User: Fold Beta-phosphoglucomutase from Spirosoma liriopis.
Amino acid sequence: PIKAFLFDLDGVIVDTATYHYQAWKRLANELGFDISEEFNERLKGVSRMESLDIILAHGGLTVSDEQKAELAEQKNQWYLDLVGRMTSEDILPGVATFFSQVRKANLLTALGSVSKNAPLILERIGMSQAFDAIIDGTKISKGKPDPEVFLKGAAELEVSPAECVVFEDAVAGVEAGKRGGMFVVGIGSPDVLTQADLVAPSLDGLTVDEVLAATVA
Ligand code: B16
Ligand code: MG
Assistant:
């Protein structure tokens, strides 16, 4: 039986992807090229340094490790300026209702985010106490699609992967959940999240019963 729900942060609980995009775009522009919203899809669920590598390759640039560290730091500063303005108003529609159903069903919860800024974001939106376990970018060595972030979440909750459902909006994140041996609910489009076991456009309108029923179907 399912005992725990593991949630991605960016794209499931809040829409920080738009802030990541704005900050990366600004960096790319300063380096003399541009990135599109479509290109940004590739950066979802991918760690900060790996994202920078993808962007630099896209712009055809090679830089030293020191410069890379500086560029990542610059992007993060711009990103934090945007995150600093977040409030509970930025929690995505349906999240509060879904979480109250999760609590009523006595399911455990974990956050599975590769973002090093995840604790700060949870604090900004008033959800620091909403999870039984928080796995963020400071606790892992491999980003999604590696399953490490979700396997650590399951381990901290003391449940097995087969007892977990992952909620993910990114292609890399859905793959991470599947590679971890978990049931994955894709949040977004079925055309994009082809590996997901179930897909919903958002948590808004989705019910815990519907998810649990799908895991036994
Ligand atoms: P940071 P998630 C991920 O969060 C984002 O989707 C990804 O775009 C970002 O590069 C990554 O966090 C690292 O974030 O720079 O804040 O450490 O989807 O795993 O919640
Ligand atoms: Mg995400």
User: Anything to note?
Assistant: The chain has a mean pLDDT of 97. The two ends are 12 Å apart (CA to CA). DSSP finds nine helices and six strands in the chain.
